[in-house]
Amino acid sequence: MKNYNLEYKKKTKTSAKIFAKSSKLHVHGVSHNIRFYEPYPFVVKSSTGKNLVDVDNNKYADYWMGHWSLILGHGQKNVKESLKKQIDKSWMFGTVNEQTIKLSELISKAVPVAEKIRYVTSGTEATMYAVRLARSVTGRKIIAKIDGGWHGYTSDLLKSVNWPFTEPESSGIINEEKIISIPYNDLDGSLKILKKHAKNLAGVIIEPVLGGGGCIPASKEYLIGIQEFVHKNNSLFILDEIVTGFRFRYGCIYPIMKLDPDIVTLGKIVGGGMAIGVMCGKKEIMEYADTVGKKKSERSYVGGGTFSANPVSMTSGYATLSYLKSKKSVYSKINSLGEFARKEIRKVFDGKVVVTGKGSLFMTHFLKDDITEVTNAVQAAKCDSQMLQRYHFKMISHDGIFFLPGKLGAISNAHSKDDIKKMILASENF
After folding, report:
1. Which residues are paired to 263 by β-bridges?
2. TM spans, by residue (predicted)?
3. Strand-pair category, 236-240 with 201-206
4. Which stretch of DSSP H or E encloses residue 199?
5. Could you write out the DSSP letters of every residue in 44-105?
6. Residue 324 gets which letter from DSSP?
7. What Å distances lie between residue 223 and 123, 220, 237, 278, CA to CA?
């Protein structure tokens, strides 16, 4: 198999120099572990539409799309113009602002459970506070999550993220016994574990499409079964829709699956490319975050932070959601492109891969050993991840196509069918 390192290094000499400087200043040269790949990541100088441009002027069709947050593409006109107008007024108030109210009105109408909302600046914070709120409401301590479920770098939920799921993910984490892990898409196996901890179970947090764990949709039956147990047990059902919210349709995915969550977390798309995390839920639950007149023992400090609900993030989010609301054809277009991509990639590799995903999200899993399907994170982890990274790196170095090596791809409204065809052609030549 051809080694593309030399081709990559010839094309990215300026990136190499700049990243060497970054490595002296930043841990491993990056501020997010997943952004590093061998021999070094190229350095971006600009982006527009579907493309990233690096400091050596190489152009890449981007399928990473800002951690999957840029559903309209880079620098979309409506969002950009809204941001310019807001920046002329100022970009930081640290007080109540009308921009927040406008965004919340859109979210509350599109997401039925969003009877009350709190903003933070990342999805990580949103899930952290959701878990805290569940414990406050129920008076219980244990939270269940999914094997392979990713909810950010929170100490509470940084467990059973990577294979093997029984090993600690990091040093410095305490109270790991308060987090239990259940198998994805295995209702009987999950219920068996949940029943053991029922008395002290505060809640279950689940992604309806397992993002970092392999871009794997949950079955409707699985989610409904978990929800039924949780509600009968007087625990809380928390859906992490940070990746899936406003990705497949205008709103969340849970209503079309007939689910009734207590808390939903949002992020990525609802910020339009700016820093955001959203925790929303039923009024009677969210009211626990109202600390006025409550004893310390009754309080649930939830949400906040210096940059929470800042006017720039709120403006960017409002512009993005307004565009999606007025042009819902965006969804039929990108979902169709996603289906086309999954189908054609399967054809190219003819039984050697499983392509998971939903709508405009897709991920290629190179099969090995006895793996024939990918319906959970265990199966995903046992696929050939090195082959996937080589596949992605070949496209970066040779074809001008960017996937963050080893991660799922996201299609934006800036992509066309011709772009997908080019990606398929690059796959054929792998």
Report:
1. 238, 281
2. none
3. parallel
4. none
5. EEEEEBTEEEETT--EEEESSHHHHT-TT-BT-HHHHHHHHHHHHH-S--SS--HHHHHHHH
6. H
7. 21, 5, 10, 22
Q: Residue 419 is part of which domain span?
A: 5-75+328-428
The continuous run of DSSP H or E covering 351 comes out as none
Q: Which two tokens stand for residue 89?
A: 């007024």
DSSP tally for the chain: helices H, then strands E: 14, 16
| CA dist., res. 56 & res. 52, Å (int) | 11
The string of pLDDT tens digits covering residues 299-334 is 899 988 999 999 999 999 999 999 999 999 999 999
SS3 state at 196:
helix
CB neighbours (10 Å) of residue 151?
A: 29
Q: Is the pLDDT of residue 1 over 80?
A: no
Cβ contacts of residue 189 below 8 Å, gap of 6+? 182, 183
**CATH code, 350:** 3.90.1150.10
Whether residue 170 sits in one domain with residue 156: yes
CB–CB of 231/257 below 8 Å?
no
Which residues on neighbouring strands pair with residue 217, listed in sequence order?
Answer: 209
pLDDT tens-digit series, residues 298-308: 889 998 899 99
What is the pLDDT at residue 221? 98
For residues 173 and 233, membership in a common domain is answered with: yes
Helix, strand and coil percent figures for the chain, each rounded to 5: 45, 15, 40
Residues facing 54 on adjacent strands:
44
Q: Tally Cβ neighbours within 10 Å of residue 227.
A: 21
CATH of the domain at 198: 3.40.640.10
